[in-house]
Amino acid sequence: MVAALSSLSEFYHENHPKARQHLRAAIDERSAEINESMLEEAKRVMEDLDLVENEIARLVEACDKMCDTLTESKASTFDLLRETERLTVELDANQRRQELVGSFLGTYQLLPEEVTALQGDAISKEFFDALKHVQEIHANCKSLLRTHHQRAGLELMDVMAGYQEAAYEKLCRWVQDEFHAMSDDDTPEPHELLGHAALALQERPILFKYCAEEISNMCHNALFRRFINALTRGGPAGHPRPIEMHAHDPHRYVGDMLAWLHQALAAEKDIVSALFKDEKGGTRTNLPVSYEDTLDKIFEGVCRPFKVRVEQVLSSSIHMVDIFKLINLLGSYVEMLQGSIGDSSLLARTIGDCKGLAEKSFFDQLNGSMARIQRNPPLPPRDLSPPQVVKDVLQEMSEVLQTNSTVRSQGEEPAGLDRLVDGFLAPLADICERSASRLDDDNQSKLHRPSATYCVYLINCRSTMLSAVSGQPALRKAASAMSQTLDNLSRELVNREVGNLLQECDAYELVQRIKIHHEQSSDADVLRDPALAPDMLVEALDRLFGHFASQQQSLPEFQSVQSPSLRSDLVRKAASEIEDAYKLLHGSLNSSPSKAASVHTPAQFRTLLGGLV
C-alpha cells in the first residue's frame, strides 16, 4: 500500500476535487504508458534473443561440421595412430637394445680413440688408460667362456691379446729408449710416465726381465764410458778436470773417484728405482730380477777400474799416514753405502775390498818398518832419553791417531784401533828392550837386578810412549797397560836403588832379618839374634845418616829420569822406603836405651831427607 501510494505521488501532484475526478483516467493513462514502455523493452529483448538464436544456430552448424570433419579425420588417421603406437613400442625396444649394445661395447670393445692411442707412436696418459681398458676387457671375456657365448669370448680374447702384445712391445721399446737417454746424462730426470710404464711392464714378468736386462746393459756401458771419461778427459770444456790429473795426491785421487761413484750411484738409483717402483712408491720385490742385482750389473763395469787404480796407488811409494787416510776414507764410504744399498752390494763390497787392501798395505809397511828397527835397535843416548827413532815412531803414531780422530764422530770408538795401537806400541816396546840391553851392565848389582841405567832408560821410553796415548778416551786400554808397565819399572828402580844404598851402608841384611822376625811375630827373637846386636844396628844407623849428611844431592841415579813429575815421585818413594828402613833399625834398639840415645832419631833423619829431597 505504501509503495502504491508512493508510486502514485510520482504523477499525481495536486489533490483537489477536480483532479480526483480524473484520477482513474490518469491511472489508466499511466498504466498504458507503462505497458507501451514494457512492450518496447520486450521488443528489444526479442531482437537480442533472435540474434542469439542466430548465433547459436551458426555454432551448432559449425559443431556439426567439426564433428563431421573429426569423424572423417579419425577414420583417415586410425591406421597412422596404430602405426605410431607400433613404432613407439619398437623405439623403446631399440633403445633398450642400444643400451645393451653400448654396455656390451663398453665391456668388450675399445673405443676408436683408444685404439688410436694404443697404435700411435707416442706414449701418453691415454695409452695407459687404453691399455688398462684392454686388460679389463680381457678379464671380462672370461665370463663369456662360462656361458653359451664361448666362441665370442674366445674371439674377443684373441683380439685383446693382440692389442696387449703390440702395446707391451711398444711400451718396452719406449722404456728402453727413455733409459738409454737417461743413462747418458749425469743428472737424469725420469719421464713423468716412466713409473706408469714400469708398473705396466711388471705385469709381464718375462718381458720385464728382458727389459730390465737390456736397461742394465745399457746403463752398465754408459756408466763405464762416463767413468773412464771422468778419469781421462774430465767434464765438458775441461771442467771439472780429469781425475787422473791428481794421481800424485793419493787421498784426493781416491777421494775424487769415490765422490764420482757416489754421485753416479745416486743417479743410477733414481733410474733403477723408477723401474722397480710399486703403486705405493716403494720397491717391488716379487719380480724375476731384483733391484739389487740390476744395480750391481750397472756398477760391475766401474768396480774393476776403480779397484785397479786403488791397487796402483797402494803399490806406489806412499807414506804410512797417507795409507791410513785412505783406510778412513774408504771406510767412511763403505759405511755410507752399506746404509744406502746394503753390505751385499757389489759397489760396497768392492770398496770394502779396497779398504782391506789398504789395511794390509798399512800393516805390512808398519810391520816392515818395525822389523827393520828391531833387527838393528838404536844405542841409548848418554842422557838415557828415548832415542830419536822412538820419537819418530811415536810421532807417526800420533799423526795416524790424529787422522783417525778427524774422520770419526765424537764419542765413537773406532773399530780395530787396538790392533792399530798394538802395531805401534808392541814392537816399539821390544825395540826399547833391545836398545836397553845394549847398555853397559858392569854396574849390575849383586842382587841380580837390572842396572839403574837400564831401568831409567826404559822408564824414559815408557813414559814417552804413555804420553803419546794419554788423554784419548779410545786408548784407555793401551794407556792403562802402559801405565802398569811403567809402575812396575818404577817399583823395580826404587827397590834396586834402595837395596844398593842399604848394601853400601851394611844395613840391607839387618833390615831383611828384622822384617823376617816381624813377619813371624817373634819380636823376642830380634833381641836374641846375634846378627842384630845393638852395636851393629848403631853402626848401620850412623852410616845411613852419615851417607845422606855428606850428600849434596840424594839418589843421583834418579836424576836421569826425563819426566820431572815422575822423577819427583820416584825420589819420594825411595826416600819413604829408606826412612822406613831407618825406623825399623832404630826401633830394634829398644833393648838398649843407651845405644838408642846415641844415634839420631827417625824424626831427625826425616828432616835430613826432606832437605835433600
Automatic annotation (TrEMBL):
Main location, first listed in the record: Golgi
Keywords: Coiled coil, Golgi apparatus, Membrane, Protein transport, Transport
InterPro entries from the UniProt entry: COG6, COG6_C, COG6_N
GO biological process, any: intra-Golgi vesicle-mediated transport
An annotated GO cellular component: Golgi transport complex
Subunit (UniProt): Component of the conserved oligomeric Golgi complex.
Span of domain Conserved Oligomeric Golgi complex subunit 6 C-terminal: 150-609
PANTHER family cross-referenced by the UniProt entry: COMPONENT OF OLIGOMERIC GOLGI COMPLEX 6, CONSERVED OLIGOMERIC GOLGI COMPLEX SUBUNIT 6
Membrane-topology annotation of the record: Peripheral membrane protein
Identification of the protein by name: Conserved oligomeric Golgi complex subunit 6
Record localization: Golgi apparatus membrane
Function: Required for normal Golgi function.
Chain ranges of the Conserved oligomeric complex COG6 N-terminal domain: 8-120
Keyword Glycosyltransferase in annotation: no
Residue ranges of coiled coil: 35-62
Tagged with keyword Ribonucleoprotein: no
SMART domains listed in its UniProt record: COG6 (SM01087)
Family to which this protein belongs: Belongs to the COG6 family.
